[in-house]
User: Which sequence fits this backbone?
């Protein structure tokens, strides 16, 4: 590998929100956006990075919103899990069009559509150079896909949990609303919890802390954002 492509991490867990797949739309999938993000994943793949991806479903259905509309919470969360599977299949389709071998592995068994999530099998796929897309969160209601990302990163012995967001790191306030928001290049797990910075839910932060997995928060909207983050370039926040 060329020195210009020196990697900070060999095995990563990439967390993508459902909203990241919407592009400028207000609902559903924006296929050009999905294709662009898959291009980012392909760049990392070609650099020799082993990748697992946890994808959310908020672009299609969000469990908390369903509960607010009168759907029982467990049922609502299960509906959200199905939305993550739809997003995972869309990512798989685009990645395989780019000649990247993938496996969708669901925490909720749907064997006619995708593989069940089994830790050893997922590890084997990653070692073989396949991109593993983890769907259906943890498979349990009341847990977010952020918690699923921290759990999978821990189970699969990932070197880092990379969370792609709409902004280029963590700020003291929403930088899209407050121009005087302070950017944090580095934070401790405890600072995130104490200051309630809300980049991920508290259970995800606590699990990453206990598993000693650093969290990198970067913008998935920036061209080549994944590649640059893997090389320590560009702008991002590290939680460790």
Assistant:
């Amino acid at each position: 590998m060329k020195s210009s492509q020196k990697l900070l991490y060999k095995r990563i867990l990439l967390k993508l929100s459902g909203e990241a797949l919407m592009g400028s739309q207000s609902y559903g999938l924006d296929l050009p956006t999905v294709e662009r993000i898959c291009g980012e994943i392909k760049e990392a793949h070609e650099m020799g990075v082993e990748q697992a991806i946890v994808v959310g479903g908020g672009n299609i259905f969000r469990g908390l919103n369903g509960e607010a509309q009168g759907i029982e919470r467990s049922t609502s969360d299960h509906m959200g899990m199905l939305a993550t599977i739809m997003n995972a299949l869309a990512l798989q389709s685009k990645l395989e069009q780019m000649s990247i071998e993938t496996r969708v592995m669901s925490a909720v068994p749907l064997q006619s559509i995708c593989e069940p999530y089994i830790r050893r099998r997922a590890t084997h796929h990653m070692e073989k150079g396949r991109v593993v897309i983890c769907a259906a969160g943890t498979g349990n209601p009341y847990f977010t896909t952020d918690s699923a990302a921290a759990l999978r990163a821990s189970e699969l012995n990932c070197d880092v949990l990379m969370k792609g967001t709409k902004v280029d790191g963590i700020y003291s306030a929403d930088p899209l609303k407050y121009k005087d928001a302070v950017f944090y290049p580095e934070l401790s797990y405890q600072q995130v919890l104490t200051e309630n910075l809300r980049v991920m839910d508290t259970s995800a932060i606590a699990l990453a802390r206990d598993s000693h997995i650093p969290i990198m928060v970067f913008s998935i909207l920036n061209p080549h954002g994944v590649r640059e983050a893997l090389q320590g370039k560009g702008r991002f926040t590290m939680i460790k």
Observations:
- DSSP finds eight helices and eleven strands in the chain.
- The mean pLDDT is 94.
- The longest helix spans residues 73-97.
- The two ends are 27 Å apart (CA to CA).
